[in-house]
Amino acid sequence: MADLDLLQGTLDLILLKALIWGPAHGYAIARWVGDTTGGDLQVDEGALYTALHRIERRGWISAEWGLSENNRKAKYYQLTPVGRRQLRDKTATWNRYARAVARVLQTA
Amino acid sequence: MRPRFRRFFRIDRGAADVASAVEDELRFHFDATRDELTSQGWSREDAMREAHRRFGDLEATTRRLEAIDGVRVAQERRVQWWDNTRQDLRYALRGLRLSPGFTLGVMLTLGLGIGANAMMFSIVDPLLFRTPDGLAHPEQVHRAYVQTTYLGRAYASGSFSYQMYQDIATKTHSFDQVTGYWSTKMAIGGTDAVEARVTGVSASFWRQFPVRPEVGRLFSPGEDQLPAGEPVVVLSWPYWQSQFGGRRDILGEHLKIGSVDYTVIGVTPRELMGFERERSIAFVPLTSLAANAFAEGRSHRAYYDGYNMHWLHLALERAPGVSEEAAGVDLQSVVQQAFERRAELEPGADPVAELQPRALLSPVQQEAGPNRTAETRVGIWLAGVALLVLLIACANVGNLLLARALRRRREIALRLALGVTRGRLLAQLLTESVLLATLGGTLALGIASLGGGLLRRTLLPGSEAVGIFTDSRNLLFAGITVVVVGLLCGIAPAAQVLRGNLAGALKGGTREGSYQRSRLRISLLVLQGALSVVLLVGAGLFVSSLRQVRAEPLGYDADHVVFLDAVQRDDFLTADGMDQLQRRLLTRATELPGVVAASRAATVPFYMNWGEDIFVPGVDSVGRLGDFVLQTVTGGYFATMGTRIVEGRGITDDDRAGSARVIVVSQSMARLIWPGQPALGQCVKVRDEQGPCQYVVGIAEDIKRESLRDEPGLLYYVPLEQVPLTITGMLVRTTAPAAVSAEPLRRALQAEMPGTSYLNATPLTEMVAPEMRSWRLGATLFAVFGALALLVASIGLYSVIAFTVAQRRQEMGVRVALGATTRMVVRMVVGDAVRLMALAVGLGLAAAVLASRWVEPLLFHTSPRDPVVLGGVALVLVLVGVAASLAPALRAAHTDPVSALRSD
To answer: What is the pLDDT of residues B832-849, one digit of tens each?
Structure first.
């Protein structure tokens, strides 16, 4: 299967989702994205970090420095209340969108 | 598995922090990727390469992340700042609400201080700094003056002859525009005329003020040609509104100005005032105004003939790239040539070598030029005084805030100990003082608006009002003053508090170590006292000057004399006709009830002087001795004016054309011309050296004719019939004060006036009063400001002493317990206060004496070191010291030792 190009805003949604279980650093998020999509979504990790910082600037996630599992300094991201609301809204929108596209493609 | 959290930073600060944070984050990412891959059996190099492949362009991503984070940090900092400020404001407001007395006091103090300054700025700014509305290149435009030397003194004059104007316009090459302008009051309208100011300008005026007319057009050089220009008029906006209801279809209508019918060709934009501070109702071509106004035949020559008639003013616009020096040199050479030509044309003129003409280029603001009025000089002084009042107010408020801050020392120390940064605390303290200043500032605008209007009417009657609330320059000034004052008041208490010893403040109660004399507070107090002394000395000097001016003998009784002047418009009487008319008026006037005496007169004090050459046999060129002024009179003159005859007799109705020729001279004139000799019987020839002698029959007391200051008062009186002149004015003495009788007198005599001619009636007091204005103003405002300063300073003194005494409660308790009597305690506390005031008096008097050199020219017969004034002020300050400290001293003396020692 060919790599899927990511639609605008989709990466943001995936990153918000990645943080739903609690704070995580960039590496962990990248790993989670790779594992969950099983390699179907090919995202440069660089683009992933860019998106993380962008949604941090928008106030959807906040960051703090913490210590990683092997005691190294790492930047941990976590959802803000605004981010949580965004995730809820965007998930709903995305599902509607996907259903609509699927319906279109099933006809004919 | 929750990661352990620890805070390293709260907020990233600065670009370097942003960059290192991005670097740290990405390094962790690469390390983690590499570690995982090596644990899966990759070699270190392969693992690193794979990490880079997965990541993509590291360089570009790093830059992008840094940019995003930079924006975010800036945003966060802004939000933080607003949060802090809002919090500080809330905190400050709560603090102020809790002490309404303090808040109100500070608001009033600062309101008065800032208000005084905003008021003075609104007065001084238009005089000295503001440039005329609509002027295209104000920094390149100059008013021209010529300074000449006469009898050893230099005089600068801004009035030019038409010929000199033409010379400058055609022969200089440094100026793009040379505009001549002149304004005068003219009779406006037909039968029921009123006088109003009309300005004549050369057409180049409209190039200096490139305005778009509200209606119609402006006039061109072709309409401003000798001898009489075109009768076209551009109305000024307010006059168009008030008299024509702002109708846009007025073009082509007629307006009678003086004796000429003008055609309306346009209306100026609303703001246009031209180069003058007083509004004109209309602008007309310069030549047309001159031909119109000078048509009365006051001069036997045309207004544009020769160099002798100085009437118009010049505004010169330097060409771009020409320096002021170069333009000045250019102008000087043309002026010099003009003076030389004049000497050739007029044999009687003073020699050029003696006049030493010097051309001056001044800024476009008239009061920034060489002939600054006394009102402006007093205005500048008062602006300085207002600044002093503000400084005193600041010192006082600073002191009050300091006291508050010291009371909050423990609270502040506690907050510092809890980790609040000093920066935040400083911001909080300054927020409070700036808030107070802003509250005071709003009050100040009201004060300035009221006071400014009042002051303008007395200081600059006739000038255009500038609103405090509606004018951006005034508002900006007030705003800047508020911020500066806020910071100034807050900085001292903030510094004192933050410098304080944290641990000491926390440990001690109010008892231990809390009584320290604050050197800063004491200095502020002494400063306030010293500044008050300076102001009170100023007030004393001006009050004394005003008293001296009032007591100064004028040499006549201005209160009961009215000056009546006949103004003709359409049909001009011959010299004979005017003489007949004046005789009729004089006879009619003396018959009126309430009239004591009347006389025709050529010279009116403070209004106009008539000069003629005089010759005295045996004395060479008398004219070089001084400026002699001629008064031609009829019989009732000395009775009318109340001028005393010191020796000999006055002039009577029997001194006629055919009788013995007589002259009366003033005392100074007699002393100057015939020192040590009897003046009676001496010969003076008026006008003509070959003419007959007028023999001195009397000596009159000196009068003030041009200035209330010492002037030579060189004046001589001759009977009108013996030295005929065409004069249009007469003086009338009434039993009622002149201010009351002027109007009925005018109405009674107007019936005699032929055609459209009319009479102007002016009480003599109105001519003299403006001369006293600067002293009256100085006395009033210095006194007001001085009283204000003293009030503020005494409140300050009281609060500091009360505070200190309260702090020393334990000590007082101990003293009382050990047997100190009320007397002893009171003497100690009051003594402290008096010592402080004595120090302030010393400093203030020293400053006043140092400043005396600059005040002296503004005073009248008063030494700037007047011992009565200086001593009186010193006494007042010491009394204030006693009064302010008495109540706290008594409270201290009645301290209950038991409760004082137990407390805290």
So the answer is: 888 888 999 999 999 988
| Residues of chain A contacting B, Cβ within 8 Å | 22-23, 25-27, 30, 44-47, 49-50, 53-54, 56-57, 64-70, 72-76
Rounded Cα distance between B599 and B732, Å, is 7
| The two three-digit tokens of residue B616, written as one number | 């005295």
Cβ-Cβ contacts under 8 Å for B712 (sequence gap 6 or more): B626, B627, B668, B669, B672
Query: For the ranges B118-127, B131-140, B511-520, B793-802, which has the lowest average pLDDT?
Result: B511-520
Radius of gyration of chain A, Cα coordinates, nearest whole angstrom: 15
Question: Where does the pLDDT of residue B698 fall: very low under 50, low under 70, confident under 90, or very high at 90 and above?
Answer: very high
Please tell me if residue B743 touches chain A, with a CB cutoff of 8 Å.
Answer: no
Residue B136, beta-bridge partner list:
none
Token representation of residue B866: 């007047």
| pLDDT tens digits, B578-600 | 888 899 999 999 999 999 999 99
Whole-angstrom distance, CA of residue A89 vs CA of residue A103: 21
CB distance B765 to B739 below 8 Å: yes
Please state the ipTM of this predicted complex.
0.90
CA B96 to chain centre: 36
**Helix, strand, or coil (residue B83):** helix
Tokens matching residue B588: 């009619």
pLDDT in tens, A23-77: 999 999 998 988 888 777 777 889 899 999 999 999 999 999 988 888 888 999 9
- Taking CA atoms, what residue in B is nearest to A69? B3
- Among the partner-chain residues B3, B56, B58, the one whose CB lies closest to the CB of A69 is B3
**Other beta carbons within 10 Å of B84:** 15
CB B373 within 8 A of CB B707: no
Beta bridge partners of B648: B698
* Beta bridge partners of residue B5, listed in sequence order: A66
Tokens representing B852 are 């005396």
